[in-house]
Input
Amino acid sequence: MKGLDNWSRGAALTGAAFTILVAAGAVLSGSTPGDTASGRAVIAFYLTHAARQKAAVAFLAFAFVALIFFASWLRVYFRRQTSQDGLAVTALAGVAVLATGQTIGAGLGWTLSAAPGQLQPAAAQALNAAANDMVITSAAGWFIFSVAIGLAIIRSKALPSWLGWVSVVIAIVVVTPAEFAAFLAFAVWTLIVSVLTWRRSRTPGSAGEKIGDAVLAS
Output
C-alpha cells in the first residue's frame, strides 16, 4: 500500500504539471492568425511556424490530459476528507467536457500545422476560424468545474475557503469577454491547489510544512 500512497501523493502534482504544460504551450503558440485573417495569410503563417505550432498544440493537449488526472485526484482528496464527493464528481465531469473542447481545438491547430501548403485558402480560413472560435464546449466544461469545485471547497473546508470563492469568480469571468484573464487566474489557482493538496496528503511532520499551510490558509 505504501507504493499506492506514494502514487496518490504524486497525483496531486498533476495540477502543477498542467500549469507548466499550458504555459509552455501558450509561449510556443505566440500570436496566431486572428478570426478575420485571410486564407492565404493563415497558410503563410503555418508554413513559417509549422514546427513551433505543432509543439505548442502538443503541449496544450497534454496539459488538459494532466488536468483530467488532477480532477480525478481532487475527487479522491475530497472523498477522503469530506462528504462532498458529489460535487467533486461533477467537477470531474466538467473537466472532461473542458478537455474535449480544448483537445478538439488543439487538433484543428495540428491540422493547420501538418501540411499547410496542401490546404486551399478557403479551407485554411475555415479551420483557423474554428480553432479560434470553438469555445462553447470548453467554456461550459470550465464553468461546471470551477463552480462545482469552488462550492466543494467552500462547503467542506477541506481547503482554504478563499480558494473556493476564487474558483467561483473564475467560473463567472470565463463566460465574459475577459476569458483570458480567467485562464491566467485558473492556471495559478491550479498550481496553488496542486501544491497544497500534495502537502496535506503527506504524513504530518515538519514545522515548516505547518507554517506553509497556515500562510495559505490565512
